[in-house]
Structure formats: C-alpha cells, structure tokens
Amino acid sequence: MTSFKPVLFSAIQPSGNITIGNYIGTMRHWSKMQNDYNCFYCIADLHALTTYNKHSCLKKSILDTISFYLACGVDPNKSIIFIQSHVYQHSQLNWILNCFSQFSELLRMNQFKMKRQIKNRYEKTNVGLFNYPILMASDILLYQTNFVPVGRDQKQHIELTRNIAYRFNSLYGDIFTLPEPLINECGSKIMSLLEPNKKMSKSDINKNNVIFLLDDISSVILKIKQSMTDSEQPCRIYYDIERKPGISNLLEILSAITNKNIDILLKELQGIMYREFKDIVADSLSKFLYKMQKSYINYRCDESYLKKVVYEGAIKARLKSEKTLQNVCSKLGLVSLFK
Ligand code: TRP
C-alpha cells in the first residue's frame, strides 16, 4: 500500500553557476524532502527565456542543472525530475490562466518591478518577464501541489498563485489545490564573505565574496581564509548576526555542511582563535565540495543518462499534469478531441 504524501513542487532556472548560498538555502533540503513528499523537481527553461540573450548557453546550463539535482541526492526513482518545456501542459495552462489574471496584479509583482528597473533603457522589457508569475502559477497548479519551497523573494508569487487558484475554483468548483509556501524554517541565508552584511550573490563582481559549487578547492580555501571577521578583543566565537556578521556567516556555513547545529559547534569550538576556526571551515567545506564535484562530474559526463532521467520524468509529469489540464478544459467548455 502506498502511503499518502503531500505534493511538493520545486523549480529552478537552469544555471551552471550555483553558489554555496543556493546550496545551503535550497538544494541541501532536496534529498531529505523526497522521503516526506511526492516531489516534482522542474528545470524552468521557459522562465529562463525571459532573460535570454544570444550568449546564454541554455543547453549547457540545463544539463548542468540536471547534474546538480542528481549530485545533491535527488533520486529519479523517488522524485520526478523534468524539464518544463518537455511538458507542454505548462504553456497551455499558462494561456488559460492569463485569462483569469489581472493586469494590475501583475504590475504589483516586486520581482517584475525590480527586473524592469535593472534593464537599461536601451533594452526593452519583454512580455515574458511580465507574464513570468502566471507561468509559475501554472507550474505549481498543474500538479495539485500542497507545498512550494521558496525563498522570501518568491513568496509574493505563491500568494498570486493562490489568488488565481481561488478565483478559478470559485467559478468552476474545486479544480486546483491551494499551495502553501514552505519558507526554509532555519532561515539560513549565506552572506558575502568580504561584506557579510549583504547576501551572497552569484552576480557579485567581486568573486572573493562568493563560493561557487564548482570553484577549485584551492581557491575555496583562500576565499575562506580571506573572509571578513571582526576586531573584538579578545576574539571569541559566538553567533550574533548584528555584532559578528562574518563569524556568524562562517558558523552558518559550517553548520549546514556538517549537519550539526550551531550550539553544538560552539561547544566544540570553544577557546580557539579566528585563524584556527577558518582552517576548520575551509577544511570541512573543501572536503564537502570535493565529494560534491566528483559526483557532479560523473553525472555531467554521462549525457545519455541525463537524457534518460528527464525523458522518464517528462512522461510521468505529463501524465499527472494532463489530468488537471483536461479537467480545466472541460470545465471551461472547450471541446475534447477524444470524448
Ligand atoms: N521563479 C523561480 C526562481 O527563479 C523558479 C520557478 C519557476 C519556480 N517556476 C516555479 C519556483 C514554480 C517555485 C515554483 O527561483
């Protein structure tokens, strides 16, 4: 007998440039979640087109991302890993939901407002960027999703998804499950190494602020050793984001990769100097990254395996999403080809 598990839907845009911040905030939880939820892990390649330019190596980034999913322990026998554009139901529902969404509610989306500002005035804002949250709603609603793990920046999109689903359900009955955001409860947000008051970001111009999962190990050690601490005398290691942002950030990193909570680490680290502490963080992180990179490269070199994973994922995702789409179409009075 299969036990009932809630559905969890997660997606990331394809990118080969994943940082330890992304890993600790998001990807680290993926393998554990597969045991508690029916997980759908999607590579949002259609979303990536909203910021596409002819230099985007989309194909490479997509294959890189599948390899990262697998290297992080997502198991295709337990979870469904698929590429958004392989499941045409997403675009189909996207159009339908466009017709149940309001222009004014999309104009209120913070991410749209921000991305629009970043574009310089020679670059026009494409309609896809405006429509982005509705495609995201379609992704989520097709699978009768209960939970969506997201960062705080995406919470507004989940609220919009709920509003659209609620509006549709009020007109046509219980068609869509209303999803809940699953905001990472420990809230660990990894900060820049040299400016620990701002979030670590892959687009930082100063690469010493950021550690990428694929950084070579010697540069990882150097970056940790150069990271900003503080000048408290005598130096003591404790967790205080306000007064000791650098030390607290290193503690967060160490805690995430060793799976030990910060209180336990603090007991172990009592009485040591900052330099020794950095050595410990650098050592743990480099061992961790070495293992992760080895596994990543094994998957990345086997393109036929990657294709098999997403082929099987697409078949399963289509089966599940088609049910919802058929239901929607029939409620709308669209004529079915088959019955
Ligand atoms: N917008 C998300 C991001 O950039 C990616 C995404 C696309 C997503 N569709 C989704 C996330 C559905 C959660 C649910 O991070």
Automatic annotation (TrEMBL):
<comment type="function">
    <text>Catalyzes the attachment of tryptophan to tRNA(Trp).</text>
</comment>
<dbReference type="InterPro" id="IPR002306">
    <property type="entry name" value="Trp-tRNA-ligase"/>
</dbReference>
<feature type="short sequence motif" description="'HIGH' region">
    <location>
        <begin position="14"/>
        <end position="22"/>
    </location>
</feature>
<feature type="binding site">
    <location>
        <begin position="151"/>
        <end position="153"/>
    </location>
    <ligand>
        <name>ATP</name>
    </ligand>
</feature>
<feature type="binding site">
    <location>
        <position position="139"/>
    </location>
    <ligand>
        <name>L-tryptophan</name>
    </ligand>
</feature>
<dbReference type="InterPro" id="IPR014729">
    <property type="entry name" value="Rossmann-like_a/b/a_fold"/>
</dbReference>
<dbReference type="InterPro" id="IPR050203">
    <property type="entry name" value="Trp-tRNA_synthetase"/>
</dbReference>
<keyword id="KW-0648">Protein biosynthesis</keyword>
<comment type="subunit">
    <text>Homodimer.</text>
</comment>
<dbReference type="GO" id="GO:0005829">
    <property type="term" value="C:cytosol"/>
</dbReference>
<feature type="binding site">
    <location>
        <begin position="21"/>
        <end position="22"/>
    </location>
    <ligand>
        <name>ATP</name>
    </ligand>
</feature>
<dbReference type="GO" id="GO:0005524">
    <property type="term" value="F:ATP binding"/>
</dbReference>
<keyword id="KW-0547">Nucleotide-binding</keyword>
<keyword id="KW-0030">Aminoacyl-tRNA synthetase</keyword>
<keyword id="KW-0436">Ligase</keyword>
<feature type="short sequence motif" description="'KMSKS' region">
    <location>
        <begin position="199"/>
        <end position="203"/>
    </location>
</feature>
<feature type="binding site">
    <location>
        <begin position="199"/>
        <end position="203"/>
    </location>
    <ligand>
        <name>ATP</name>
    </ligand>
</feature>
<protein>
    <recommendedName>
        <fullName>Tryptophan--tRNA ligase</fullName>
        <ecNumber>6.1.1.2</ecNumber>
    </recommendedName>
</protein>
<dbReference type="GO" id="GO:0006436">
    <property type="term" value="P:tryptophanyl-tRNA aminoacylation"/>
</dbReference>
<dbReference type="Pfam" id="PF00579">
    <property type="entry name" value="tRNA-synt_1b"/>
</dbReference>
<dbReference type="InterPro" id="IPR024109">
    <property type="entry name" value="Trp-tRNA-ligase_bac-type"/>
</dbReference>
<keyword id="KW-0963">Cytoplasm</keyword>
<comment type="similarity">
    <text>Belongs to the class-I aminoacyl-tRNA synthetase family.</text>
</comment>
<dbReference type="InterPro" id="IPR001412">
    <property type="entry name" value="aa-tRNA-synth_I_CS"/>
</dbReference>
<dbReference type="GO" id="GO:0004830">
    <property type="term" value="F:tryptophan-tRNA ligase activity"/>
</dbReference>
<dbReference type="InterPro" id="IPR002305">
    <property type="entry name" value="aa-tRNA-synth_Ic"/>
</dbReference>
<keyword id="KW-0067">ATP-binding</keyword>
<feature type="binding site">
    <location>
        <begin position="13"/>
        <end position="15"/>
    </location>
    <ligand>
        <name>ATP</name>
    </ligand>
</feature>
<feature type="binding site">
    <location>
        <position position="190"/>
    </location>
    <ligand>
        <name>ATP</name>
    </ligand>
</feature>
